[in-house]
Structure formats: C-alpha cells, structure tokens
Amino acid sequence: MQFRYLGNSGFKISEITYGNWLTHGSQIENDTATACVRAALDAGITTFDTADVYANTVAESVLGETLKGERRASIEIFTKVFGPTGPKGHNDVGLSRKHILESINGSLERLQTDYVDLYQAHRFDFETPLEETMQAFADVVRQGKALYIGVSEWTAEQLRAGAALAKELNIQLISNQPEYSALWRVIEEEVVPTSKELGISQIVWSPIAQGVLTGKYKPGAPLPEGSRATDERGGKDTVKRFLGDDILTRVQQLEPIARELDLTSAQLAVAWVLQNDNVAAAIIGASRPEQVAENAAASGVTIPAEFLSRIDDVLGDVVERDASHTATRSPATREA
Which among 56, 266, 288, 299 is placed 20 to 30 Å from 16, CA to CA? Predict the structure, then answer.
C-alpha cells in the first residue's frame, strides 16, 4: 500500500481508502461489513471514511465497533457532517454551530474514539453563514475532537472562501471529497486547479462509477441480480445515469486495455484516478471482502501516458466534464 500527503500538511493517508457509504448498516450484514474492514486492514489500508448520515448513523457505529481493537495512532478515521440525522428535526441538518458541535460528539461516541483525523463538511450550506461554520470547525479542532478539516463537493469559489476563513482562524482545510472517475471528470476544469493553488487534495469517491467501470453491466443485457443497480434502498438511483448502452458499450472496450496492463477493469478504474497528482486517495466500497483485496491492488500502479490516451479515445464523448455539476450537489435549502 502506498501513502500520500493530504493537502499542504504532514499528514499521510493510504491512497486506497475504505468507505462505507451504501453498505454498512444498509446493503450488507454487520458480519460481512466486519469482514470487509478486516480485509482492508489486511491489504494495508489504514484510512477509513464514513459519515453520520450513512444509514442514519448506523454506518459509523458499525465501523467504530470493527476498528475498536486497532491501535488508534496507526489508523486514520474520517467522518462528515451536514445531512439529516436522528429524528431529522429542524436543527438535525446543515452546518450551523449547533449541528456541528452536537454532531461531532455523536460521531465520536459511535466511532468509539476521542478524535477523528479529518472532519468534513459533507456539502455546502447556503443557509448558514460560512463564518459561523468555519468558526465551529475551528472550535472542534481546538477542542481536540478533530485534527484537520475537509469538505465534500464544494465548488472552486466555495473552496476559496472556506480556505481564506480557515487561514484567518489558524486551522488547516486540507481536503475536498468529490465524485471522480474516468466517466465523471467534472472537477478537472475548476476544482482541481483551485485546490492545487490552495493546498487542498481530493479524496475521491466512486472511482469505479458505482461499479459500472468493472464491466459487469452489459449493453442490452438484464441487470445482474444483487448488483447496486437493482438495490431499491438507494443504490439503484445512484448508478442509473451510467447505464445507457452508449456508456456500457464503451466501458466493455476498456477490458482489453486493462488486460494489457495485467489489471482487472476495476483496478484500472481505481488506478486511473490516482494518476491525477491532486488526488490523495480513492475511496473504495465493498459488499464482499474479495472486492477490497482486488481494488487495493491498484495502489502503486502507474498507467503509461499512451494507455491514458487510449482510455480517453475509447470513452470519447460519454465522459461528463461539465464543471457546473458540482454546484448542484449542495441543496439550496437545508430542510430535513
């Protein structure tokens, strides 16, 4: 396993990070979740990403229970705040001071730890003054409950404003967590250049495009039983934008490229995002332990430039590059 610095800091994380969105406390049973986390540790993964909103706090509890026997200084635990949790009351959502300070305490209890290494704003909150949000994050850091601050799916302008306030408050805003894959490249035009300027790294989610880049979805064929595309608890909605026959046909053409590099299609997809030098880590999820081992093997892979060009040629115009998509990821209101 290779490790990379996160942002302009001395903090290193495993470039393959294990995440439990849509799995722990939802799609898979707790014993399977535990087996997946153990497989991640066995593969050398030390960094684990979750959020209080995942399975309405249950995902944090499952992860905390599984990691409680590990040496705390040897692992990195990330979580997030924004989404509605608990009974989803009027203050159970957003980035207000009240919600942030109450949420960090709940997350620490569920994760069974005194601190998280990275505490992230899961989305941008248009209804709370940014100054209030950043001051609350600064207080969380000064209380020793988080070591660093990050965000998720913020636009270039939002990153710039947040970084300026963080500097004034003497805290480190070091990361952004956007969606990024060979099929979804919307951060490349604006977010990545701005992040490089500000000393912010990307921790990217869905590097395999919700499983589509594994090649398991075939054009014109029925959806595989038990796949994310058939999951009525949320997975189906997240993957459907990638299931057009035009996309699936192109994805099938990536398999020979993967074979030439002695990689599986999934490994090629994970390795592809790690070729971007602003990406500190690719978050992988899993419903089976063997998936973790397979994807973790993408660590340290270098894809030659000629192969990167071939991937671009194969995918062509099915790649989404419109930078405006990032702005739509944060809700205009924070109603629970």
Answer: 56
Of 18, 54, 148, 217, catalytic: 54
φ/ψ (deg, to 5) at 169 = -90, 0
Q: Tokens 């790294």 map to which residue? A: 201
Above 60 in pLDDT, residue 229? no
For tokens 């739509």, the residue is 328
Check whether 329 has a pLDDT greater than 50. Answer: yes
**For the segment 35-85, what is each residue's pLDDT rounded down to a tens digit?**
899 999 999 999 999 999 998 899 999 999 999 999 999 999 999 999 999
pLDDT (0 to 100) of residue 25 = 46
* CATH superfamily ID and name for 3-328: NADP-dependent oxidoreductase domain (3.20.20.100)
Cα 134 from Cα 162, distance rounded (Å): 7
Tokens read off for 311: 């991937």
Q: Domain spans of the chain?
A: 3-328
CB atoms within 10 A of CB 319: 17
17, 180 in Cβ contact below 8 A?
no
**The pLDDT of residue 23:** 58
The rounded radius of gyration (Å) of the Cα atoms in the chain is: 19
Q: Using an 8 Å Cβ cutoff, are 270 and 211 in contact?
A: no
DSSP-assigned letters across all residues of 114-169: S-EEEEEESS--TTS-HHHHHHHHHHHHHTTSEEEEEESS--HHHHHHHHHHHHHT
